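Deliverable D2.4 — example input (structure tokens):
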């Protein structure tokens, strides 16, 4: 009986026993213990299966989205394309190149929807704000701007696992903020999209950082070297080429850089800041 007492005391796995060494009563007791052990193992398997079922993520939930990012009301929503073209629709996409300082964005509200990026929220509330840089999203969350503006869009990221109120691109574009803002506006299917502050090239003959928010938190210094714009330009061109039913008009200063890659696109054109102001009576 000694081995049976040990089993009752907490042995997890029953050893193989020579039946001839046991009495009939001991053998029946051993069989009872083996049944109990088998039932316990089966119960543990069922519990583990239920636990896995609760935590398992389906392919649609994980497609191009980082694991362990919280479920928000907009996280799994894909940007819906408006298949009916609004022939009167106008939108303005605001980059942060210094050329747009000549335009007061508040005056654009009565003419169409506004799309902006990153630190624009510090001085103006666009209809849609796009920020994909982690530092800028952290700044936005600290300011709780997403609670003021329900249309703040970014890419899913583990760093945001405690955040709420943001809209997440699904799948993530993996682009810079400006071209992503242009892409989002294009998904909303306007007839004409005016592009401001997409300067591409740096200041001082392309040598210095060109941004309205230079020398402020989360931005480079105005004395820093210009940022490489090749990716921005290619992403901008890609958006235009995939939305041929939309007319894209870039608002430029006389000395702004004019990428030849954009000039070849049929649904792309430019307008000077002066003519743009006259067209919308922004004086």
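Example output (designed residues):
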């Amino acid at each position: 009986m000694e081995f049976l007492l040990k089993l009752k005391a907490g042995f997890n796995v029953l050893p193989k026993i020579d039946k001839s060494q046991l009495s009939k009563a001991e053998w029946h007791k051993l069989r009872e213990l083996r049944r109990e052990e088998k039932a316990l193992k089966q119960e543990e398997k069922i519990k583990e299966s239920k636990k896995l079922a609760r935590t398992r993520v389906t392919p649609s939930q994980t497609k191009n989205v980082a694991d362990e990012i919280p479920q928000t009301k907009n996280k799994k929503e894909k940007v819906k394309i408006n298949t009916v073209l609004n022939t009167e629709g106008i939108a303005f996409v605001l980059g942060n190149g210094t050329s747009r300082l000549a335009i007061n964005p508040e005056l654009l509200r009565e003419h169409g929807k506004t799309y902006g990026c990153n630190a624009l929220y510090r001085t103006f509330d666009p209809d849609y704000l796009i920020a994909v840089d982690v530092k800028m999203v952290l700044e936005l969350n600290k300011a709780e701007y997403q609670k003021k503006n329900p249309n703040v869009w970014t890419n899913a990221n583990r760093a945001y696992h405690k955040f709420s109120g943001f809209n997440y691109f699904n799948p993530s574009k993996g682009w810079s903020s400006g071209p992503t803002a242009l892409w989002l506006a294009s998904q909303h299917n306007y007839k004409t999209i005016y592009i401001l502050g997409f300067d591409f090239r740096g200041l001082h003959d392309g040598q210095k950082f060109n941004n309205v928010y230079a020398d402020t938190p989360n931005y480079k210094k105005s004395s820093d070297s210009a940022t490489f714009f090749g990716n921005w330009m290619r992403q901008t061109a890609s958006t235009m080429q995939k939305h041929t039913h939309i007319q894209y008009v870039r608002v430029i200063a006389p000395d702004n850089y004019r990428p030849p890659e954009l000039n070849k696109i049929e649904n792309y054109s430019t307008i000077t800041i002066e003519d743009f102001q006259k067209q919308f009576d922004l004086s």
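The beta strands are 86-94, 113-117, 128-130, 152-155, 167-169, 190-196, 247-252, 268-272.
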